[in-house]
Specification:
Length: 300
């Protein structure tokens, strides 16, 4: 009996050390990445000058390293792809939650989840062969299929599995009494889902949005294949442009010296961009419960 107790205590200690080591490794990895970015990027930004670095001209042959055009392109692509992906994915999750035949929920969810296993280069190839020619011949008024819209459509499909899976789990986590209580009070099926269940699951929906934004911001290969690649300020949905991630990937293996340092500095900007997005969503997510608590206190 004493031997078994000692074995259990030793096992618990070992597992505690393993878990702590994993946590420390994760923090250390993040710290190393931050040190690499800031040590290599911030000095170049100060050397070039923030005004020049956030300019609109990127030309490594003339020593111009303005990234503002690529920042704007990244914002456009992220916003449009998230809008399309979240809208389609959320309605898909709602359909699977309550408006789809029960026998079809499992197969449809598995098919949607299969999208997550497709390599990004396949999405880019599909966009290059199918989406870009379709936009060029049927939609674009300028005869150009590359651009923000093509990249946003590809990314919208890529983020669907995350949005559908996380949103559906959030909807299923809402107690059934919410839905049944709304029906008992005379609400229709649609009113019960959209006005009672969906607001109760908004925490999970916000998590899905944050994950989809992170995927859209960080995606590179598929975007490179359909966005064109010109480092110019976006003025149309049908225009060859370049995002921050595609700019880094296109020059990371070839450039040295100041151009390579400029790419690292672009990584610093991308890091802060992602950080600000996560903070904004966290504040937005936390503001609603506080407002609800204030309203309840006012009522009482």
């Amino acid at each position: 009996m004493l031997t078994a107790y000692r074995f259990i205590r030793a096992r618990d200690r070992i597992m505690r050390v393993i878990f702590l080591s994993c946590a420390v490794f994760s923090v250390a990895a993040l710290g190393c990445i931050c040190v690499f970015l800031f040590a290599g990027g911030v000095p170049f930004m100060l050397k070039t000058g923030l005004g020049n670095f956030f300019g609109t001209v990127w030309n490594i042959h003339t020593g111009s390293y303005g990234i503002m055009a690529m920042v704007v392109a990244s914002l456009y692509v992220t916003a449009l792809s998230t809008l399309l992906g979240v809208t389609l994915g959320l309605f898909t999750a709602i359909a699977l939650f309550k408006f789809c035949p029960e026998a079809a929920v499992g197969p449809v969810r598995q098919l949607v989840n299969l999208l997550a296993g497709i390599p990004s280069v396949i999405y880019g190839l599909f966009g290059l062969i199918v989406i870009v020619p379709f936009l060029r011949e049927r939609v674009s008024h300028s005869g150009i299929g590359y651009g923000i819209l093509a990249a946003s459509l590809v990314l919208a499909v890529m983020v669907l599995p995350v949005i559908v899976s996380v949103s559906l789990d959030a909807l299923n986590a809402v107690p059934k009494s919410y839905h049944e209580g709304a029906l008992a009070l005379g609400a229709t099926e649609e009113q019960s889902v959209f006005r009672v269940v969906l607001p109760a699951a908004k925490s999970g929906v916000f998590a899905a949005v944050v994950l989809s934004v992170g995927r859209a911001v960080g995606e590179t290969m598929a975007v490179i294949m359909v966005i064109g690649g010109s480092p110019v300020m976006p003025r149309s949905l049908f225009q060859s442009v370049r995002t921050l991630t595609s700019n880094i990937a296109m020059g990371a293996m070839e450039l040295t010296g100041d151009p390579a340092a400029a790419l690292v500095s672009s990584g610093v900007v991308l890091f802060f961009f992602t950080l600000l997005l996560n903070i904004s969503f966290s504040l937005l997510k936390g503001g609603a419960p506080r407002a609800q608590r204030r309203a309840q206190k006012a009522d009482t």
